[in-house]
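Lay summary

Proteins are chains of building blocks that fold into shapes. Our project writes down both the chain and a compact code for its shape. Here are two examples, one after the other.
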Amino acid sequence: MKKTVYLIVVILLLFSFFIVKYNSGAKTIQEALSISHPERIVILHEEKTKDGILVFYQISKNDFSAAVVKKRFGNYRVMYSGAQGEIHLTLDRFGFTYMFFPAIKNTSFPIYFGLIRNPEITQIKIVEKKRNMEEKAKIIEGTDARIWLLDMKKFEGSEFQIIALSEDNKEIAKRDDNISLQVADQNPIQGE
């Protein structure tokens, strides 16, 4: 009899824990990205991955942010995120921005991504300097923005060229990047 009562109490406690956990978190991705002001978040694109949801968003026209979000117990949780500020300077000069997220175990694969403003840019190509390997990024045509994205699992090293190309493969802009320096400077914000 006592074992049955203890079992019922344990089951009720676990059930109560899951109800509290379910009701206490962010119910939408926007809430998870900004608990204080979710209405300011403009989600530009969501990319589902095996590790969660990669969300590209803006809070103002001068920033561009990305986050890896997971859904657990009916709630969304930011695993990590990063932001680019004052993007208008880079967009005006080069026509595109770029940012690197490193791989984090069980959270996300390594990716390069950014915004494209120049309408002549139809392709972004990444060249790994170490092996002279190259690959073209996926271009996402959104209603409010064009985003480029490339899974970097195949690449090695830390020095890359990011080349913006026109439809006829004419080079529009080129940037050199060292991701070992960028990761140290950028240091994505870790989620809870």
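And here is the second example, written the same way.
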Amino acid sequence: MATKQQSGFRYYYHILGWILYFGLNYMLFNTYFIRFNLPLQLVMWVAVFIIFYVNYLVLIPFFLFKKRYVLYLAFLVIITGIILTLTYTIKMDMMPPPNFGDRLHQMPFHSPDITFGEHREPPGGPRMRGIYLDLYNMLMFIMAAIGIRFFEFWSTEEKHKAEQERAQAKTELSLLKQQVNPHFLFNSLNSIYSLAYRKSDLTAESILKLSDTLRYMLYDAEKHQISLKNELEHIRNYIELQKLRLTDLTDVQMNIQGIVNNKQIEPLLFIPFVENAFKFGADGIHESFIHIFFDIHNDSIEFRIINKVVNEHPNERYKGTSGIGLNNTRRRLEILYPEAHMLKTEKKDGLFEVQLILDLNKS
């Protein structure tokens, strides 16, 4: 079903089309030798107007679109025959048949290739030629109605398809974001568990920091876009939460270059990579490092994180969860930044590196 805006646009281009047709018709008749006869032209215009909209509004949607081809052709032939007969009858009552044969010699031809003496009156007589001309005009508008109707149908279908794809993508994004939250919570609770298991005095502080990060995820991260400044602060809080369970054996650094203010970004795009780095790159037993870099430009963000892999097989609490966050983020990037991002991961010589470049202008 067409919206009010689409219907209004349709009315406008119908009106414009008829104005162009009537105007060109008038200009063409006045260009040549035949004197423009307004009453006769009005009859023809009304005829093509009727055949166009009977076909456009009734026959095509109720028969052609529903693949009732035989009924469509039958009704089209009947209606065209009726209108053609009425048009011919009315025109014959209004004016006697014109003598086209005499007027052929009045044609303003200027081509040296044309010899006026060679012209002969076409077969069938002027009345039959008038019928042929009327039938030609009607057939032209029948084809125009079919073409316009099918174009509108195709355009509507494409818009409907695009709306369905947007709705599907929105639903998928919502589900993907919902998966990020429990995945984050799962990893954070494991960090707190390790503190509680050791009866660390930092357990209470870690729970407080977790509550801050959860508040961000429940409220700020539900928005379509958030400030880059808040997203980076969320990453810092997560890093501080993880540091509570680590020792000095893990070197964690976060470096930011560029202007952060006034930048907007989709939420929770970087945190899964940070989570992954802590999962596989920090166990508090082996020497390791996690280095995070943000290089912020006017219209793009380059994110890079590199960590030493010291924990190839996380304990049983992580079983079945490995890779969920990264795969989730890859899919979100495909939806949110199509052809506007570059994601590269590489594992080599005991190191794991992620590089992500976002084009902020195309988000």
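What can we say about the second shape? Residues 200-362 form a domain with the Heat Shock Protein 90 fold (CATH 3.30.565.10).
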